[in-house]
DNA sequence: CGCATCCCCTGCCTGC
DNA sequence: TGCAGGCAGGGGATGC
């Protein structure tokens, strides 16, 4: 999927269209995404006004004027596009550069002022759900989510407590959404490279026996926050097959330090290592064995 | 409970 | 050029 920075960028693109807008109609063209749509999904949204569009981890969270909440997850391949009458797609919102076949347009939200917001998702790993604002934190999809990687509350002490005693790898621990909510495969690889830590190392091994935070964990927390903040600032385009509506590719042009760079020299100036690909939990890991220990 | 594996689904890329 | 196989941003279900 779009990872957290991409979801945040999508949120910022949709916000001006959806916030304050009345939903005049909802079309569900294909009901079998990752999970079935809630009962009477379209009816429950129609006529509502969107009072706010937020984000929690990789979920878009739309508040409605009756206290209900629309949760949207983009899965691996979900994207939105905006169409207004007599206007091209709105810059700043990602859409797929390829494969954005109308066959995969699964949901269309029509607003009172004539805009259409279409959800497209070829792989159908995305989904939508309804909740209520009052119970949002207790909702099954939200309840177990861990800390956001965007703020200062992600620090060494928190990671120490979360990693203490864990035999699982640092890579797997950082992908665990109940610890840090919103990190995905790309940014975990990048953050571990920035922190100089091996993804293969046991998570518990970076915590002292007393469970006290280490300097390593301080570097890791800082690296995670920095990687995410940089990607959001750059417009979140980590995905080569996403473009902004003006055609620019954004952040992907930077490429990454290690992600998808197997065999390339490690970009750290003082390092002579070569980026290596391994598989952890069935997913690719990229790291430099020379400077990530 | 912690942890690893498998799977959902479609499209793109590589190699034969 | 066609086709088979591998791989992809996520994360829930299952089984040890």
What is the structure about, briefly put?
The chain is of the alpha+beta class and 293 residues long. The chain has six helices and twelve strands.
If you had to describe this structure to a student in words, what would you say it looks like?
By secondary structure, this protein is an alpha+beta fold. It contains six helices and twelve strands. The chain has helices spanning 4-18, 41-45, 156-163, 170-175, 185-195, 215-233, and strands at residues 23-28, 50-56, 59-64, 68-73, 79-83, 95-96, 105-111, 116-120, 127-132, 242-243, 276-280, 283-287. The longest helix is centred in the C-terminal third of the chain and has 19 residues, at 215-233. The protein binds a DNA duplex (16 and 16 nucleotides) through loops.
């Amino acid at each position: 999927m779009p990872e957290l920075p991409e979801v945040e960028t999508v949120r910022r693109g949709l916000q001006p269209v959806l916030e304050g807008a009345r939903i005049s109609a909802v079309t569900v063209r294909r009901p079998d995404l990752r999970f079935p749509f809630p009962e009477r999904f379209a009816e429950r949204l129609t006529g509502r006004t969107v009072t706010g569009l937020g984000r929690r981890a990789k979920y878009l969270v739309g508040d409605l004027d009756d206290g209900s909440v629309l949760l949207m997850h983009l899965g691996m391949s979900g994207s939105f596009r905006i169409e207004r009458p007599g206007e091209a797609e709105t810059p700043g919102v990602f859409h797929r550069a390829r494969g954005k076949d109308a066959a995969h347009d699964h949901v269309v939200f029509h607003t009172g002022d004539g805009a259409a917001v279409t959800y497209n998702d070829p792989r159908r790993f995305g989904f939508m759900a309804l909740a209520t604002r009052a119970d949002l934190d207790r909702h099954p999809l939200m309840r177990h989510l861990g800390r956001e990687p965007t703020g200062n509350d992600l620090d060494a002490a928190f990671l120490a407590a979360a990693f203490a005693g864990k035999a699982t790898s640092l890579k797997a621990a950082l992908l665990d959404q109940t610890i840090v909510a919103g990190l995905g495969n790309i940014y975990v690889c990048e953050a571990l490279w920035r922190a100089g830590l091996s993804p293969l190392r046991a998570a518990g091994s970076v915590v002292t026996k007393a469970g006290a935070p280490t300097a390593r964990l301080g570097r890791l927390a800082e690296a995670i926050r920095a990687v995410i903040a940089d990607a959001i600032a750059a417009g979140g385009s980590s995905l080569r097959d996403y473009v902004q509506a003006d055609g620019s590719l954004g952040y992907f042009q930077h490429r990454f330090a290690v992600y998808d760079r197997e065999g390339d020299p490690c970009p750290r100036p003082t390092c002579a290592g070569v980026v290596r690909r391994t598989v952890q939990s069935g997913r690719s890991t990229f790291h430099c064995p020379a400077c990530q220990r």
